[in-house]
Amino acid sequence: MMGGSILKITNEQLKEMYLTMLKIRKFELSASDLFAQGKIPGFVHLYIGEEAVATGACANLREDDYITSTHRGHGHIIAKGGELKYMMAELFGREDGYCKGKGGSMHIADASRGILGANGIVGAGHNIAVGSGLAIQHKKTDQVCVCFFGDASTNQSTFHEALNLASIWKLPVIFVCENNGYGISVSQKRHQAITDVSVRASAYNIPGITIDGNDLFAVYEAVGEAVARARKGQGPTLIECKTYRWRGHFEGDPVVYRPDGELEAWIKRDPIPKVEKYFTDSGVMTEEEIKKLNDDVDKMVKEAIEFAEKSPFPSLESALKDVYSDIVEEGRVR
Amino acid sequence: MASIGIIANPASGKDIRRLVSHATVIDNNEKINIVERIVLGAQALGVKKVFVMPDSYNMGYRVEDKLKSCNELKCEINIVNMLRFDGMEDTVKAADYMEKNNEIRCIITLGGDGTNRAAARSIKNTPLITISTGTNNVYPTMLEGTVAGMAAAAVASGRFDDSKFVTKDKRIEIYRDDELIDIALIDAVISKDVFIGSKAIWNTDTIEKIIVTRSHPASIGFSSLVGCKKIIYPEDDFGAYLDVNSGSEKIKAPIAAGVVESISVTEPVILGLDDEYEFTAKDRGTIALDGEREVEFSKDQKLVFKIRREGPFHVDVIKVLETAQENNFFII
Predict the structure, then answer these.
(1) Which helix (DSSP H) or strand (DSSP E) does residue A111 occupy?
(2) Number of structural domains, chain B?
(3) Is residue B332 domain-resident?
(4) B262 to chain A nearest CA, in Å?
């Protein structure tokens, strides 16, 4: 059999995944409030409703594995181990943020955890993921890279170039498409002549599957199989996760493009209560324990906000620091 | 001439078995091509109206547009007016509508075993033609759309004795506390997997038991584990069950596309029609029905499995066309 018994998850692993989903949800809800209060500059694109994808995918990764992300990247970064306080400080544009306050929401990166960066350019993560896959192959390690992207980015040439190279070189890259039904304000029906992005995999002779992206266990299982395959040198996989973003494309988007009832139908498929139900039905956690964990995460997010608020803005003198790599700066000096 | 119904499952042929086995992708454009050929085959032999399940890819509308644009549409295409959920419930609801609509005398499905299981939850009397576009395809068969459309037209004409080409199929009924909770057309697999997850089942390590309505070494899927020990035909008035990962004898069986697994099984035990097999769970687990994990159970829960001849009336396409030929159906 090609697959393994991926669904042997311990209760502790499950609780950890649930904690991650809560962190994402509560971080994003706070970011929404803080943006409305004018405390967060620039744009923020929230991940509320899609938590199961990042959580289920990253739960299969080691710290030395890589991810590439998108403009809607907070969830991916939290799931890969990013720290809330540095993320929040970055959103606030403060010196203690992941990019010293110069990147903001769409550029958070943490190379020490394999987070190769959120990305403000649609479709820009695909080829970075292929590059990391090529590096892994050259280093002859069994690391992998998970590349997160949206449905509309699969219309970009970068998607096709990336799948082609990853396929021909059998790179350890797992392409995880978060199909939330919209590219900005354009529904998938109006930007693609297909309903399932996964079918595009067949053009590159790699496995492509479609799963319920609001089912944590389905994501965990499917990405787990793809990761195992990639670690064994069997090449890339395309996994399409059907999901939905509850908020607009960005905070402040009036969202006039959704049909009536669509959001409400997806809210009924909220991935978080589904996991909570499993916990209470199976006796993994009681309702009191679930409430305590929720309270703990509320506290974590509150502390992250306090940390961000106390952090200073970057100095004027540092404006050009870290903008170019040392190699470029050395070249300039010469 | 009565009408026909078409249920084309847009989700079939795309699940995780493309990753964990060598299963093929059948995209929705290919399903549209098949539906198109069904319509052309059926209208050529007198069908005036075709009802199509609505789906996220608008397959029915696309077929209508395409055939109209090349001036080849002679019949009426009606998309069933129903609220869509883009899940298995759409197939159940569309089949229910078609079953209750007296105009519709034959239904054609495009999908795998899972699609037909969903349709079979609603279909009781309307004859069913099944075209394989899924993964484990024991119930449906590879069939050219034109031929399926012609056969549907012959069935819908009502000119022939159905008993010559239609068989009432068996099904497995699963009861919890005397309540029927679900059905399977081919096999029910009891697994130690505690989550439904990505639905498909492929890992033999976690399987405890299999109950089948039919079995054959040529059937892809877990029913082949029984089939490699004992062949049970659709017309046999019994099914069987056996234990997996148990027993002294190892067999090789095609449990998924391109995957022939070695696994130990016990001797199959015959389960007669309406006989009960009671299973008491030692721990949490799931039951996969026709290849997809669907039912979760908890420790100490009792489940009863029964094989009954309550499945759909399944059309043998070759036999219906032979009957049609013998009765001059094709002569103008």
Answers:
(1) none
(2) 2
(3) no
(4) 9
